[in-house]
Amino acid sequence: MRWCWRALSAASVAAVLLFALAMLLFTPGPAIAGESATVWHPHPNDPAALARVYDVTRSAMETAGTPFVKWTGHGRQFLAFDPRGNGRVVEVFGDLGAADRIAVLVPGASTTADNFNTGLDDVRDRAPAVQARALYDATRAAAPGQHVAVIAWLGYDAPQGVGRTAAREELARAGATALDRFTADLATLRPNARVTVIGHSYGSVVAGLAAADLPSQVKDLVVVGSPGMGVSRASDLHTSAHVWAGQAAQDWIDWVPAFKVWGAGHGPLPTTPGFGDRVFGTNGVIDHDHYLAPGTQSLSNVVDIVLGRDSSVTGPNYSALSGQASPGQASG
Predict the structure, then answer these.
(1) What is the helix (H) or strand (E) element at residue 188, kind and residue range?
(2) DSSP string covering 91-143
(3) Is residue 168 predicted with pLDDT exceeding 80?
(4) H/E element holding 55?
(5) Which of 22, 196, 214, 270 could join 220 in a cystine, given CB atoms 3.0 to 4.6 angstroms apart?
(6) CA distance linking residue 146 with residue 279, whole number of Å
(7) Superfamily, domain 78-318
(8) Tens of pLDDT along 147-166?
């Protein structure tokens, strides 16, 4: 009898696991929201165009009420805003119209318009606005004479939570299309600027799926706390951009299974040996959320990447980086 009970229990567990796997692999993905109601288009020959966009967006945020109306003062610049659904927000730090170094931050799962400014569960260093401000301030401090702009880009519908939608690609593919379009617009506005795309968590899946169609102005693709980039190796991204990755030893993302089948899973972690990118150090990062926190090695490294100071980027425990290939250098 005890043997039968154990066999029945094992069969039950197997059945539950198979059912969960079937739900993950075969349940249709979520409906993808349409284009944001506020879409920015560049006007490179009109210096006043950005200011007009900022004014229109500020008015829309004031009309939307709390919490957005509270964000519109203190000289903040919003390129796009849409409160519908989980919301979309694009904020600019610095003078985008004059920038020759531009960083675009792509946030991850559970990011919404409501927590864009405060972070998920009020973890401020997870908030796109806080991360972008920290990167902008650190970059300006490192190169006071450089014309830098940093953009917090919640231009897609991020999955909510770490469940089925976060394990699949549907939302990332829609986000990748939007990211390609947005960076193409940046290239139109500032054709001689060097652009860095930075994806955090699920945002790195978006960046990976967008990589092949990013404009040539995107010179660097940086991922932190990544569950995978949708490919098996960096060369499969088909981009000329240098690919960089950082992951803290304490980040729970290391427990994410490395698989990709029928739209589920995102492939190996980009910090996996042999992936073919450049792995930089993240000393001082204590979890999944603080990769751009002041005082961390990862923030310092991302600053150097944005500024094109590749030789200054350091590896784990501040070791020198050497001999790691990016897709533009990989031999396939």
Answers:
(1) helix 170-189
(2) EEES-GGG-SEEEEEE--TT--TTTTTT-GGG-GGGSHHHHHHHHHHHHHHH-
(3) yes
(4) helix 49-64
(5) 196
(6) 26
(7) Alpha/Beta hydrolase fold, catalytic domain (3.40.50.1820)
(8) 999 999 999 999 987 667 77
